Amino acid sequence: MTFAVVAEGLRKRYGDTWAVEGFDLAVPEGTVCGLLGPNGAGKTTVVRMLTTLLRPDGGCAAVAGHDVVRQAAQVRSRMGLVGQNAAVDEILSARQNLVMFGRLSHLGLARARSRAEELIERFDLAETGGKPVKQFSGGMRRRLDLAVSMILSPPVLFLDEPTAGLDPRGRNEVWEAVRALVATGCTALLTTQYLEEADQLADRISIMDTGKVIAEGTPGELKSALGGDRVEVVLHDAADLPAAAGLVERATGTEPSLDPDTRRVGAPVREKAAALAELARLLEAAGLAVEDIGVRRPTLDEVFLHLTGDARDPHKEVAA
């Protein structure tokens, strides 16, 4: 397997504080890696070191086969970076922006124009016509940002919260654009404040805390490590929770957990179909009023909070 991004023992210190200490990462070519972590975990510092904006204080890293310290110029020529804020000129049109960035990237005028047309088609920007960027929707702006980052067809793309502030439609537009890029062989390292986004886009996820990776795997692997499938029942009356808990334990063979605030009782389950059918039968026979019953897997939110020990809202804290 060939890796597009590799970091070994990466370290960075600010004064007496180690922001990153012993960070390891290996991202296979043609995949999306989601990098998650609470505020202060070191994600932004890692991205800055990998994109040559910061010099590491220890360890080593390579992007597209080039050392980020000794071969910084080669790294910059082989990567694209989409930051949290749009880097395009709001007065110009999409086409004019792309031609301008092509020229700034040392393409000849004819090549810059042809490349602009290729990217306008790839990122579905033709409908913008000659409108200035200031009239674009949020999703269009971010698609243009992605297009600009691909002017030189870099094999590695760093996405730092690419959908921050977008509505669901705008996020979906960006997701589709990222999937299309990866389908062409591009490799992406994604930081995001939306755990659903990492779940949707990432082939593998690395979760950081205190400057190092504390867990990694596919979204499915991380969820399974938290306990696999659970059967859950939401009751109409919280007073029925003890009785329902006994029935859940009988159907699943495992000790249930109760949440009086949500009138919910649940337990881990292996044979989910059989356990769910048996539990439904037991609840009906007992005459307990049920509002909802089903089987679900742990969410990536729960995995994140469990691993980082952070009781804060993950949607607000995951991406700094």
Automatic annotation (TrEMBL):
Gene3D superfamilies: P-loop containing nucleotide triphosphate hydrolases. InterPro entries: AAA+_ATPase (IPR003593), ABC_transporter-like_ATP-bd (IPR003439), ABC_transporter-like_CS (IPR017871), ABC_transporter_ATP-binding (IPR050763), DrrA (IPR005894), DrrA1/2-like_C (IPR025302), P-loop_NTPase (IPR027417). Residues 5-235 form the ABC transporter domain. This is Daunorubicin resistance protein DrrA family ABC transporter ATP-binding protein. PANTHER family: ABC TRANSPORTER ATP-BINDING PROTEIN (PTHR42711), DOXORUBICIN RESISTANCE ATP-BINDING PROTEIN DRRA (PTHR42711:SF19). GO terms for biological process: daunorubicin transport; doxorubicin transport; response to antibiotic. It comes from Planotetraspora silvatica. It is found in: Cell membrane. Belongs to the ABC transporter superfamily. Drug exporter-1 (DrugE1) (TC 3.A.1.105) family.
